[in-house]
Every structure is written in structure tokens, then in C-alpha cells.
Amino acid sequence: MKRIQTDIAVIGAGPAGLAAALEASRSGVGKVLLLERDAELGGILQQCIHDGFGIHRFGRRLSGNQYAQAFIDEVRGSSIEVLTETMVLEISPDRRIAACNRKDGILDINCGAVILAMGCRERTAPQVLIYGDRPVGILTAGAVQRYINMEGCLPGRTAVILGSGDIGLIMARRMTLEGIKVQGVYEVMESPGGLTRNIVQCLDDFGIPLHLSHTVTWAHGRDRLEAVTTVKLGPDRRPIPGTETRIPCDLLVLAVGLIPENELSLKAGVELDPRTKGPALDSAFMTSVPGIFAAGNVAAVFDLVDYVSQSGEAAARGAAAFLRGELSDGGWDPVEAGENVNFVVPQRIRRGASPEKTAFFLRVKKPAAKAVMVCSSRGEIRLKKVCRHTAPPEMLSFETESRGPLLVDMHSEEPS
After folding, report:
1. 293 close to 287: Cβ distance less than 8 angstroms
2. At what angle do helices 15-26 and 64-76 cross, to 10 degrees?
3. For 410, which of 92, 104, 240, 340 could close a Cys bridge (C-beta 3.0–4.6 Å)?
4. By CB neighbour count within 10 A (0-12 exposed, 13-18 middle, 19+ buried), where does 16 fall?
5. β pairing state of 406-414 and 332-337
6. Rounded to whole angstroms, how far apart are CA atoms 130 and 32?
7. How far is CA 131 from CA 134, 171, 221, 229, in A?
């Protein structure tokens, strides 16, 4: 067994982990260790060859590869120690990491602070109750993306997409460009699950139909997928008899949502937020376990990679403050999700912490053409911001002071 001592360990080298490791290194806390289970750094951005990344951070449209490479180059030029092809097996509440790789075998890593940046995973067929056998040809959107963009393999010739998440929308366009016939996108909800710009650029521009309030109920075929059955749903989301349609296809692409990757978090005793499915965080981005921090899609599913990087840097600053003994244990005040707000991250404000402003991220419950966000504390309005358009798929960000309880409301000024 190899034993390692480090000041800050970052688990995951996607956009959150890369940004966190760099910010931790810049803080001068000492040794920073970056752990990644894949052979390369970059996380999911490795397979994102489409553009639209980095508009906020770099002021221009980059591909996912280009965005990641900007951080990777900086990591390689720093003193950050990087271990790739290293699987983290367990994290203990006292910040000891058990990991393994082919070169070193079992690793026992003792950390001053840990930053969780493991990202998220996709929901699969058993989680959306599709009946039938288990034929070849039922894949998640991320898997299809990897097959086409990284492995150079077309997983089918005729496709149906279930779910209108952003990866599914982007893959509708990508598959069409590669010659795969996309029969349509079917969405359970009454409104799309992806960003508006992806609906326009990936479906409308290519004549791909979007069927709202529809789902896939059956996958036909024993060895290879031959067809799927779709059905229209009523207001109660129950199938409407007589609306079943059998659609021939050899590829069913699932874009039915993402789940934060939190098995390690649970083993460490971290409290999870039932709304985000990620750790409940304070204004230093620290979890309920002292010295363990979280950022990016492991904390909540983001839609903009710029926000993911921003959260990674916030977690690193929190970890550095923890090592310097600047985070007192004087308790915390709640951040409440008020009118038309689904959740706010972080969910708590640490008492006695730096009074500097904290970056918060939120999602709304219902779309609105125009809304006013109001952040208040004990009746005092701290921030009032007009939002031209709000929708559940699009995360919003704001900054306000890190003191006292906070209530965040999204008042609709105009019907959607």
C-alpha cells in the first residue's frame, strides 16, 4: 500500500475539478493532488466537439475540447500532482481516501481537505420503465456521443430519442449530420427539457419533430432493436389509449436526465439535498462533513460549463480557507427557495465566514417571459434583478453578501 499526504485532493478532472485544482494551487495552500479515473483529463468535455462553451469565461464560442484544453494546459504548467487511471473507492469522514491504480496498487491518501468533482451520470432504460426485451440498440445520449465523436462508430441507422435534454438535442443534430435518420424526439413533459437555443439549432434547423407529452413504452426486438412504441400522455401523465404508434428504428437514444454521482459522498456521510440530489452546501461550498467540499454537477446539474468552473473555484477557495482555519463552526443560516424557485445552491450561509459576496445558482419551477428575482434577508432586500426570460432548463446565477438567512423569490411580471 502506498501512502500519500496532501493538503487538498480533488476527485474528478472534468471542468469543475480542473478549475478547483488550479484555484487551490493559486491559493498557495501547499500540495494539490488531482485524481481522475479516466486516462485523460477533461471529463465529459473530451467528447463534446460542438461549440458554445466558454462564452462567459472566454468571451468566445469554443468546443468542449478547446474549453477543457485551456485548463489542462494550465494544470500541466503548474505544480499540481495528477494521477490518471486512478479509481477512488472510498472517502472517510476524516478525509482519508482509498484509491487504486495499476502502477501503485492501493493508495491511502490523507488529505487536509477534499473537493468532490465527480460529475453526474445519465438515467438508463430501467429507470424510465420501458417494457420489452433488452436488445442491442438502446443507449444513453452520452454513450452515443462517445461512440460517434471519439470511437468513430455509428451505433445505428434510424433513431428515436426519448427525452429533450441538451445532450439528446445536440446528438439529434450530430446523428443527422452523420447520416442517421432521426425519426423524432419524444418528451414526457409539456415543455422541452433543454435550452431554447438547442431546440432551435438542433431540431428546428434540421426539421426534426419534437413531440411533447409523449413517451416510449415498448422496445421491440429480441437481439437487435427493431422498433419502439410511443404514446401520448394526458395531463396526469398517464398514457391515452388509442394513441400508440409503432416506429421502426434500430437505435433508441435516452436523454432522460442526469443524476449527480454521489456514491462516494454518501460513504463519507455527506448530507444530500433531496431537490438537487447533490450535497447540501454552505457559502464556502463545504458539505455537512467538515473539510469536504463539492462543486459542479456532483452538487447540482448545471447547463453551462462556465458556471461549473465557477463553482469549482468557489469550492477551492473554501477549502483553502478551511486549511487556514478561517471557517468557524458557528453554525449556518438557511437559503430558502421561495416563489417559483426550485432550488438554490449553496443552500446555507456559514456564520462567521468572510462577508464577501458568494455566487449562488438557481433553477425556476415554471417558465416566464419576464420575471424579477428578489433576494431578501429578514425583510431587507439585498438584490433585485430583472430576468428577461426564465425556464427550468436554464440555470441562473447571482452574487450577494454571505451573511444572515436568505430568501430567493422569482416574481413573474408577465405570463409565459
Report:
1. yes
2. 30
3. 340
4. buried
5. parallel
6. 45
7. 9, 24, 11, 10
Cell (9 digits) for 397: 446565477
**Helical packing angle, 305-323 and 15-26, nearest 10°:** 40
- Sequence-ordered strand ranges (E) for 261-387: 292-294, 332-337, 341-345, 348-350, 357-364, 370-377, 380-387
The C-alpha atoms of residue 331 and residue 348 are separated, in whole angstroms, by 10
Taking the C-alpha atoms of residue 237 and residue 224, their distance in angstroms, rounded to an integer, is: 29
- Of 319, 294, 283, residue with least CA distance to 28: 319
Alpha-helical (H) ranges within 268-367 are 305-323
Q: Which residue has the cell 468535455?
A: 45
CA distance linking residue 34 with residue 120, whole number of Å: 18
**What cell was used for 327?**
471557517
Are 57 and 306 contacting, i.e. CB atoms less than 8 angstroms apart?
yes
Strand partners, 259: 121
Amino acid at 260: P
Return d(Cα 195, Cα 303) in angstroms, integer. 8
Q: How far is CA 318 from the centre of its chain?
A: 20
What's the pLDDT at 415? 42
Per-residue pLDDT at 416 exceeds 80:
no
Retrieve residue 342's grid coordinates. 426550485
- 172: part of which helix (H) or strand (E)? helix 166-177
Find, among 281, 289, 328, the residue nearest to 93 by Cα: 289
> 52 and 196 in contact (C-beta within 8 Å)?
no
Compute the distance between CA of residue 23 and CA of residue 320 in angstroms, rounded to an integer.
Answer: 9
Per-residue model confidence as pLDDT tens digits over 239-294: 999 999 999 999 999 999 899 999 999 999 999 999 999 999 999 999 999 999 99
Are 336 and 408 in contact by the 8 Å Cβ rule? The answer is yes
CB 55 within 8 A of CB 306: yes
Handedness of CA 43, 44, 50, 53 (dihedral sign): negative
Q: Which three cell numbers stand for residue 175?
A: 446523428
Paired with 97 in beta bridges are 91, 109
- List, as own/partner pairs, every contact residues 276-282 make where C-beta atoms lie below 8 angstroms and the sequence separation is at least 24, other chains included: 276/300, 276/301, 276/343, 276/345, 278/345, 279/116, 280/347, 280/348, 281/345, 281/346, 281/347, 281/348, 282/332, 282/346, 282/347, 282/348, 282/349, 282/350, 282/353
Give φ, ψ of 283 to 5 degrees.
-70, -10
CA dist., res. 190 & res. 284, Å (int): 37
pLDDT digits (tens, 9 = 90+) for 14-58: 999 999 999 999 999 999 999 999 999 999 999 999 998 998 899
